[in-house]
Design a protein that fits this description.
Elements lengths: L3 E6 L6 H9 L4 E6 L7 H8 L10 E6 L3 H14 L7 E4 L4 H15 L6 E5 L4 H12 L3 E6 L2 H15 L4 E4 L3 H8 L4 E4 L10 H4 L7 E4 L16 E5 L2 E4 L1 H19 L6 E2 L1 H10 L2
Parallel strand pairs: 1-2, 1-3, 3-4, 4-12, 5-6, 5-8, 6-7, 8-9, 9-11
Antiparallel strand pairs: 10-11
Helix pairs in contact: 1-9, 4-5, 4-9, 4-10
């Protein structure tokens, strides 16, 4: 029986990236549906859950993507409300690569450093990847500071992550030299989740920093988020600190994304969100 993956994209045009990874992850057939919302998803989900016998439902799965994490979360909640008893299929959320990118970066960090009890700073933390990275670091026992250029946005994201994942994050500002220095004061780990072309740290912010041990930046286009690193860095030693660049993280992200797609077809009752995706990441070599 063919493995059918239905891609619910919240954007007007469905992602090409997610198409490639879906097939590489083991889907036999991918159907992409753009502009999917909580209001119009009901007949789509019904088509997925009613059409195969119970023993065969594991061969149908849903992937929720798109650029807007808030829209993706709302869609995931709406989809789950339609499921009942054994009438359900496995579903994965990865809006804007939020879960797979964050999980890959945090998995690389935690393989090389015990983060429990240490202070981690997530720069540009209010975006999809930053929010999820903060959650995963907190789940591993780190004391996490989630930063934004605006304190209100940081506070809002911290509250949302508390409500959804029951983790405590500290909101902070990182907008100029003084606030960046305050955010990094006593920190051991920095995770950069900024948009393409936005530099978050200059070299002098981190190279001689007395407590920093690990830096991870997901950016892959110049200027990188952290000045003085290389996007190919993968546990590279620079100034006595372990560095992970965007391509170093991205290689694991792609493997993880494929592994998650494959996982969807093992049973019909899985929901892969931040916690579940991170657990899969931890199990990869």
């Amino acid at each position: 029986m063919k493995k059918l993956l239905f891609h619910f994209d919240t954007d007007p045009i469905a992602s090409v990236f997610d198409t490639v990874v879906a097939y590489d992850g083991g889907a036999d057939q991918l159907t992409q549906l753009a502009g999917v919302t909580p209001e119009n998803c009901h007949p789509l989900v019904e088509g997925a859950i009613y059409t195969r016998a119970p023993k065969d439902k594991k061969n149908t799965a849903l992937f929720i993507g798109g650029s807007d994490l808030a829209a993706g979360q709302e869609l995931l909640a709406a989809v789950q409300k339609i499921f009942f008893q054994k009438f359900r299929v496995s579903v994965m959320l990865d809006s804007n690569g939020c879960n797979t990118t964050a999980a890959a970066g945090v998995a690389l960090i935690t393989r090389n450093v015990d983060v429990a009890g240490k202070t981690a700073v997530v720069l540009a933390g209010t975006g999809p990847v930053g929010q999820r990275a903060a959650v995963m670091l907190a789940m591993m026992g780190a004391n996490v500071r989630l930063t934004s250029r605006q304190l209100d946005r940081s506070k809002q994201s911290c509250q949302l992550m508390k409500e959804k994942f029951d983790v405590d994050l500290e909101p902070m500002v990182a907008s100029d030299d003084d606030s960046i220095a305050a955010a990094l004061d006593g920190a051991h780990i920095v995770f950069g989740a900024g948009k393409t072309g936005i530099q978050l740290l200059r070299a002098d912010h981190w190279q001689q920093h007395p407590t920093l041990e690990v830096l991870a930046d997901v950016n892959t286009a110049p200027p990188l988020g952290f000045e003085g690193i290389d996007m190919m860095d993968n546990n590279t030693d620079r100034f006595g600190k372990k560095i992970f660049g965007g391509i170093g993280i991205g290689a694991l992200k792609l493997r993880l994304h494929r592994a998650c797609i494959g996982q969807l077809f093992k049973s019909n009752d899985q929901v892969l969100d931040a916690k579940q995706v991170f657990e899969i990441a931890q199990g990869l070599d």
